[in-house]
Amino acid sequence: MLQVDPSKKVHAMTIDVEDYFQVSAFENVIARGDWDRLPLRVADNTNNLLDLFSESDIKATFFILGWVAERCPDLIKRMADDGHEVACHGYGHLRATEQTETEFREDVKKSKTILEEISGKPVLGYRAPSFSINDSNRWVFDTLRDLGFLYSSSTYPVKHDLYGVPSWPRFKYRLENGLIEIPMTTIKLGEKTLPISGGGYFRLFPYPLSRYLLQRFERTETSPGIFYMHPWEIDPDQPKQQNISFKTRFRHYLNLRKHKGRLTKLISDFQWGRMDQVFEITDSV
User: Domains, the chain, ranges and CATH?
Assistant: First the structure.
């Protein structure tokens, strides 16, 4: 049972567990066939996050690639043993918009099976790589439900060059098939909808601005919020990629040395928990 301070809202702390070379922005410069030849840094970085969460008595949700779980089973066991939620991020970080229904089903089913066998616990949550669910592939929701997932956190109702459907709901809702979708957190400022869920925005915005926006969200909305990040974001010493655009370089490497310090402040300034507990995930309609 989630232990909370009743005077404070509890938000969901989420980690998308993938290594630096698996991000979508590098897919055209790092071949998948080279992944096993590259230095694997995700275990050390994720263990550093687990240590930080343990010090602050925080439970989080980890959306994990099956590819990572196969190579780092002790990491997955530690998450489960420490009381964190083990959730699915697909197997090989393939965007759902670039897969057929059959390919998507096989990828996600493979990952879910691996995670459940290692953790010994049911995997109920899913997050699409790069929030890759939109109007072109709503069939994903039916596949997820058929595979036994209770919820997804895969949509971002903002305008972005890589993802997002601005007209989609901003808060938790249940689809007709029973699956719960929990969109990434946004805030309304006038007519604009701004992303405040973390990721690159957390590294881009000065920390006082990130804190202010989440505090404003707490005052103006009844829903909990979601924060997300990747283990590589606390790893400023990761190998640098050379053949990438300025925009990609800026987005990926911006303020990596500041991220862990900002995260420590965020943990202290707000109250955090697992997705399934914060959003009270059940299978009842």
Answer: 10-278 (3.20.20.370)
Cβ within 8 Å of residue 136, ≥6 positions away: 97
**CA 49 distance to own-chain centroid:** 14
C-beta of residue 49 within 8 angstroms of C-beta of residue 231: yes
Any residues with CB less than 8 A from the CB of 210 and at least 6 apart, and which?
196, 201, 202, 262, 266
Convert the pLDDT of each residue in 74-133 to its tens digit.
999 999 999 999 999 999 999 999 999 999 999 999 999 999 999 999 999 999 999 999
Neighbours of 254 (CB within 10 A): 13
pLDDT tens profile 1-29: 444 566 689 999 999 999 999 999 899 89
The kind and range of the H/E element at 263 are: helix 256-269
Is 80 exceeded by the pLDDT of residue 176?
A: yes
Query: Residue 225: what residue type?
Result: G
The H or E element that residue 271 is part of is: strand 271-273
What distance in Å separates the CA atoms of residue 262 and residue 209, rounded to the nearest whole number? 11
Phi and psi, residue 74, nearest 5°: -65, -30
Instruction: Please check whether residue 144 is in contact with residue 180, taking contact to mean a CB–CB distance below 8 angstroms.
Output: no
CB 183 within 8 A of CB 213: no
pTM over 0.85: yes
